[in-house]
């Protein structure tokens, strides 16, 4: 049984008006009513107000069905909500939360009218995520009582609330709404007034880059979305998320961000304007980047851009044995993946001892799988028997596919590919696992560049489902088909992309991480607040600074430098704070200190 999260009699904010009863306003009203507040829902449309009440009746009915509420709870919650089409209904409110459309003109009109209606001590909050809170406050009769209160959609489920102060906001007002957010079971993050605040400020730049990547026909919408879901553990891909948010809303937010930052990464991708002006605004319109069953539906249906079932038209080459070059974590992980799929694997390192150590690491990994009940001891033994360690690449003479996973150094890789060219039989596919170097440079080190392709696995390879398949302009069609077929056999999800820095995942991930560092560098928000905002507001499995410390600050800096060098965009220049930490030897968890300090092992 659900009970109010707090005693509302202890809070000065007992009666709360919500102006604008769309999806967000309705969600906020539900959260407030469930926490024991008296709620006045206001919308200029009677139909929208009725829709809000119907939605509350439906959601509370589901709560009863699932045992989260009693019938009495439901009746009390619904009894605490009344609706109106007249702003004067907010006259007794202790707090007004405005969630009208993202338009200065609309919001200014609401605030001007509220100035003549509410009591002098009433706090007025805007739910904007793109417009200036300071500008709205400056035009109010009581600017010290105006602030931002940014909930995330769906408000009943999302725990983050950004509390936005302007230079005019009174500390007492901030304290009151922060306490309210805590009473509602939310996690408030205090931020200053700039477009997008923390969560959307980082999120929308990433979404914009994804839209630009799709517009450039670098990768399909399905592959971009799958890459970010499987490569980063995100709940949704960026293009599907843009459809959910609304392409027009995203364009508005990005326009505001670009006006403030003049960062090219925030300049809305032209496709956002084109889709918006065509009325293809996403789920609400029934079509955006994807096509939906009906307006408002989340069910994607086939359209002209949906990939054909059945895969490649070109047959691939037969692959029975695989060579893996390298002795590190990635090499041993890839060797384990192929062996589990039944391939004979030759694991080659710079010495027999290193190769044996890599096989021993695989043995331990398989033992952990046995302990966890994921495979039998017999299957683990059979898998390990498929792996032959060696200290010479000469043993790759009979393999059908050679995969290198050596140091991320172009000269090292070029020398290795030159060696593989001499050793491997004609027709063998040669693959690099590089995450940031040009695949074509490896290909040109051989006499058979048509046989070379990128297979970018993600760490840890046995657990991560994604492989970015990277074609160069020289890669043969049957080589591409071969690798796609192999990915299916080793139970990995392959996404296609071209040979440019960062491929899909790193090209979208690292600018986002770099922008998070800039926020800290500019003293806009703390590490903890940014990490919390992205986990609670964006559904990210890790905050950006947690992730940077895990990846390694030196690795992150190297990738950011490659992206900056390739795309020549000033916004991609690595944040000086990252460069300073790397220069100081603070590389993350592996050194015990990065953005945070860690206990020594």
From TrEMBL:
* Domain of life where this protein originates: Bacteria
Pathway in which this enzyme or protein is active: Lipid metabolism; butanoate metabolism
Q: Where is the 3-hydroxyacyl-CoA dehydrogenase NAD binding domain?
A: 15-193, 322-499
Which biological processes are named by the entry's GO terms? fatty acid beta-oxidation
Q: Which InterPro entries match?
A: 3-OHacyl-CoA_DH_NAD-bd (IPR006176), 3HC_DH_C (IPR006108), 6-PGluconate_DH-like_C_sf (IPR008927), 6PGD_dom2 (IPR013328), NAD(P)-bd_dom_sf (IPR036291)
> What keyword terms does UniProt attach to this protein?
Oxidoreductase
The 3-hydroxyacyl-CoA dehydrogenase C-terminal domain sits at 196-292, 502-598
Q: Which family does it belong to?
A: Belongs to the 3-hydroxyacyl-CoA dehydrogenase family.
Give a yes or no for keyword Oxidoreductase in this entry: yes
Query: Would the keyword Chaperone be found if you checked this record's keyword annotation?
Result: no
Q: Which SUPFAM superfamilies match?
A: 6-phosphogluconate dehydrogenase C-terminal domain-like, NAD(P)-binding Rossmann-fold domains
Q: Which Pfam families match?
A: 3HCDH, 3HCDH_N
Taxonomic lineage of the native organism: Bacteria, Bacillati, Actinomycetota, Actinomycetes, Kitasatosporales
Protein name, as recorded = Putative Fatty acid oxidation complex subunit alpha
**Which species is the source of this protein?**
Streptomyces afghaniensis 772
A GO molecular function for this record?
3-hydroxybutyryl-CoA dehydrogenase activity
